[in-house]
Amino acid sequence: MAHHGTTLRNRSSRPSGWALGLLLALGGGGALAQTAVEYSNVAASQGAASSAGAMKVAKAAPGAGQTQSAGAPAAPSRGDGPNCSGEVTQPTMVNVATGKSTLLRLPEPIIRRSLGNPKVVEARLVSPQLLYVLGMDNGATNMILQGKSGKCVVVDVVVGFDTAGLRAKIAELLPDETGVKVSSAADSLVLSGTVSDALNANQIVTLANAYVRTGPPGSNQSGGGAANMASPTTQNLLSPRVVNMMAVAAPQQVLLEVKVAEVNKTLLEQMGAGFNFQLPGIGFIRQFQSAFPINGSGSSSKGVLALFTSKKTQALLEGQDQNDLLKILAEPNLIAISGQEGSFLAGGKIFIPVSQTGTLGGASTITLEEKEFGVGLRFTPTVLSGGRINLKVAPEVSDVNPEGIGVSLAGSSGGTSILPSILTRRASTTVQLMDGQSFAIGGLISNNVRHNITKFPFLGDVPILGTLFRSDSFKNERTELLFVVTVHLIKPLPADYALPTDSYTPPGRARRLLFGRMEGAAPDKPGAPDQDNDDDQAQAAPPPEAPRAKPASGFEVK
């Protein structure tokens, strides 16, 4: 037995089993070894008692990737691909998953074939009318098959991801998501269709990413059979990805009601003494006092306990007790689509000077930086199955600090500048609620105590009498903040929704001047005329069943 150009003959009209096995073994290289396998029956001469089968194995020219048969009278033996002497049919599309194979049954025996890109697909002729196709890597190529009659068939082969496996996994894990479509495009998975909510859409994308992260299997370059698989091929230059074109079936809108309650209580107690005196024989005035300065008229703006004055001496005993109470209540309402972020701010802006060094000459310039303050809210709702709402909420309450921050600016005359500062209280959390449920964010409590003592050395330490030589300041500030958040699923209102001003009508002249009325007859009582004014009868309201032309806008709680 010899290879390449050697003819194997058997006494029977059909090749024996060992000869067919040898044919498959020698043809195992397929397109990878550029070896073509042909099989044909040669009729015996007239008058012969039996027919003989012939099987010939020949190596094609490099790059031809073809199979030819000696039993084709209309097809010459050429090494440059099929020579289509008959009709060429329209291309046929064949889709193969990466790493999977299929069998193509052909209408007539094939004598020649050519393959465009052997790295994308592997094709083997297992019988004259049966073609084995294996998907090697993502991509597209084609094959040209020539039959015994001279007709040619063009087969377009597209190799992509195993979309059937992903569809089966989605049906297993998410049986209610029947509107999801999975397709392959080049080196990407395309997800389309509709899903019930955004959470399921994210889970489907996660499953698809797991599929595209799996590298496509490859095939080695050696012959030996269809089951001879080896290491994966070289990865694509472009990593595969998932194209998400899914849409939520009915985007739900969420209304967020937030109540911000803050109580700030401040207790201030101060007591001190102040003296202005002139020492005998010394021409200066020495003053030591507390935080209650004595003005030029000898009085003070604080609570005065006693005031003593003479030509050379002034003495002042002063005390103060102050209580402050601050209450803040804000109720912002905001609407957002499921999966989208909404924000709200009720407050203002301040501008803080910021020093920046210039690029030319190193000179510094002062710019103003914008800062916002007030009651703010940021939230992102996601409607889940069963009416559950996943909510990411971040409320914030900020205010300008009246005390500010004292800084010394370079190049100034040595004074201290007071820069504004912002006091901020914020919280951030993620919860899951049902429609109409509420949750509270509390525990934002602060308790600040400041105690300051200023005294004259030695004399301020004397018991009882030392009170006249020292000043005492005590400040206690307590703040408590509470957020209460309520979520609602909403839907649009009908076109004829009621307005708060529907029940108001302006009063007539007689009703306004004679009876001091501020409103006219109610529109829902058109049959009851005003006994005090004939003008109200002329302004009778339309019947309540009359339709009102209003724009279709607004929302209502579901």
UniProtKB/TrEMBL annotation:
Q: Where is the Type II/III secretion system secretin-like domain?
A: 321-491
Q: Name one GO biological process term.
A: protein secretion
User: What residues does the Pilus formation protein N-terminal domain cover?
Assistant: 91-159
Q: Name one Pfam family in it.
A: Secretin
Q: Which GO terms describe its cellular component?
A: type II protein secretion system complex
Where are the stretches annotated Disordered?
64-89, 515-558
Q: Which domain of life is it from?
A: Bacteria
Question: What is the similarity comment for this entry?
Answer: Belongs to the bacterial secretin family.
Under what name is this protein listed?
Pilus assembly protein CpaC
- According to its UniProt entry, this protein's organism is Oryzomicrobium terrae
